[in-house]
Amino acid sequence: MPEKVRVILVTDGDRCAQHVVEDIARQLNLRCISASAGNPTPISGEEIVELIKTVPHDPVLVMFDDRGRRDKGKGETAMEYVASHPDLEVLGAVAVASNTSGIEGVAADACVNGTGQVVQNSVDKYGQEKAPKGEKPIVSGDTVDVLNDVEVPVIIGVGDIGKMDKADDIRRGAPVTRKAIEEILKRSGISYG
């Protein structure tokens, strides 16, 4: 393994998202920290880093969830710790849109819409494209604001993982979320699968 363990942050961790992320990890031969899933994130950033360091190979998918909280909840606090840890290399983040109001949102490098296309528009929780408000698409979700405070080279926005009016259903292979993770790996120059 390289000196730093390579991780991809996923800003959703409810049961549906957990099943999707675990399934994609299997499909792409990645690792996944299932213990970080929960609504909200049930363990601390310190505990997540300890688990990441035990994986046999990387990249590792790590889920974080704030359970709809506007302020910095358990998921964002844990993500901030993991993202700034010196033993880890963050490849990118899957920024998940939600209906939470009163949040800043984060600028994404691209988004994957409900039909699985990589686009330069923002997307809502249903994977529907919204008109751009600036040069980069903005993803608004309850667990994304902290991404503005940490070093993340690639941010790809998506709607609600495993849902999006069945567009990202796990029975279809969760194509939207899978595409977002593949896009981060591709932009990081990492072969997978």
Describe the structure in brief.
The protein is α/β, with parallel strands linked by helices. It has helices at residues 15-28, 45-52, 74-83, 175-187, and strands at residues 5-10, 31-33, 60-63, 88-96, 106-107, 110-112, 118-119, 122-123, 129-130, 138-139, 155-158.
Task: Pick out its properties.
seven-stranded mixed beta sheet, single chain, 193 residues
Query: Would you report the number of β strands?
Result: 11
Using the CA coordinates, give the radius of gyration: 15 Å
Number of domains: 1
List the total number of helices.
4
Helical content band:
10-25%
Q: How many angstroms does the end-to-end distance come to?
A: 17 Å
Q: pLDDT under 50 segments (min length 5)?
A: none
Q: Provide the spatial order of strands within the biggest beta sheet.
A: 2-3-1-4-11-6-7
Helix/strand/pairing category: alpha/beta
Mean pLDDT, all residues: 94
Largest sheet: 7 strands, mixed
Shape: globular
Q: Tell me the strand percentage band.
A: 15-25%
Write the element-wise H/E pattern from the N-terminal end onward.
Answer: EHEHEHEEEEEEEEH
Structural write-up:
With 193 residues, this protein is α/β, with parallel strands linked by helices. It has one domain (5-187). The protein is 23% helix and 20% strand. The protein has helices at 15-28, 45-52, 74-83, 175-187, and strands at residues 5-10, 31-33, 60-63, 88-96, 106-107, 110-112, 118-119, 122-123, 129-130, 138-139, 155-158. The protein has a seven-stranded mixed sheet, with helices on both faces. Strands 5-10 form a two-stranded antiparallel ribbon. A two-stranded antiparallel ribbon has the order 8-9. The longest helix is centred in the first third of the chain and has 14 residues, at 15-28. The mean pLDDT is 94.
